[in-house]
Amino acid sequence: MALPSRPAATALTALAVLVVLGLPGPAYADGTDPSAPPGSVTTSPPPSVDATSPGLKLADGATLAPAKVLDIKSVVEDLGGEERREDTNSDVTFALQAEVLFPKDSSKLNPDARSRIDAIADEIKAQKATTVRVFGFTDNLGSYAHGLTLSKKRAEIVHDELAAALGSTDVTFEVRGYSEDYPIADNTSEQGRRKNRRVEVTFPRGASGGTSSGTQS
The pTM is what? Predict the structure, then answer.
C-alpha cells in the first residue's frame, strides 16, 4: 500500500539483517536490540548447503562457516518523518508519530488520525493478516510509569480504530505499551524524541497467522 498523500516519500535504506542459526532468542532485558520490541523479530531457516558438493571451491582443510540467512528490510519514510513503513520477508510494520495521532500528552485521536489508521487497516486486509501487533512508545521525558500508561492507552485507542475498520472477528490483536523502551532514534534531540513517540502496527505479509480472535495485553 502506498503511504497517504504526503510530500514525496523517500526510500531511506535497504538493510540486510544477519540472522545466525542456533543463537538464543534476543535478550530484551539487557537491550541488545532496543529498536525491536518483543514479538517483532522473526527468523527464517537457513538454506540447505551440501558440504560435499564438488562445485564448492574450498582450500584444503577448510570447512564451511555456519549457515546464515540474509533477511532484507526496506524502510520508507515520508519527508516529515510522520509515517514510516518497514517491510521484511515476513512482516510489514507501520510506525505513526504520536503527534499525527494525538494531542500532546493525550490518548484522544486527532481529527485526521482515523484516515491514517484506516489506510493501515486496508493494507492488513490486502495482506489477509489474521494477527496484528499494536505497540505504543514514548520518549524518555517524564516518568517511566507515566510513559507506560500513556503508551498503552494510545496503543489501545489505535487497536479500537483498527478493529472497527477491519470489521472482522478473525483477527487476533496483541496490544502493549512500552514507555521509553526500544527507541528508534536518539532521545537527546527533539527530532529524535518525536520519532520515538509513536504507535507501531505490525502484521505478517500474505495470508498467515491464527484464526482465533481476541486481544492480549
Answer: 0.69
Residue 90: closest CA among 78, 106, 73:
73
Pick the closest to residue 14 from 66, 86, 62 (CA basis): 86
CA 146 to chain centre: 23
Given a contact cutoff of 8 angstroms between Cβ atoms, the answer to whether 158 and 95 are in contact is: no
Q: Please say if the pLDDT value at position 152 is more than 50.
A: yes
Per DSSP, the three-state class of 214 is strand
Cell 477491519 maps to which residue?
Answer: 166
Cβ(134)–Cβ(162) below 8 Å: yes
Residue 191, SS3 per DSSP: helix
Asked whether the predicted pLDDT for residue 22 surpasses 50, the reply is: no
Q: How far apart are CA 31 and CA 182, in angstroms?
A: 8
Q: Residue holding cell 513503513?
A: 85
As separate numbers, helices (DSSP H) first and strands (DSSP E) second, the chain gives 4, 8
The DSSP code sequence of 135-153 is EEE--SSS-HHHHHHHHHH
Q: Locate cell 484506516: which residue?
A: 118
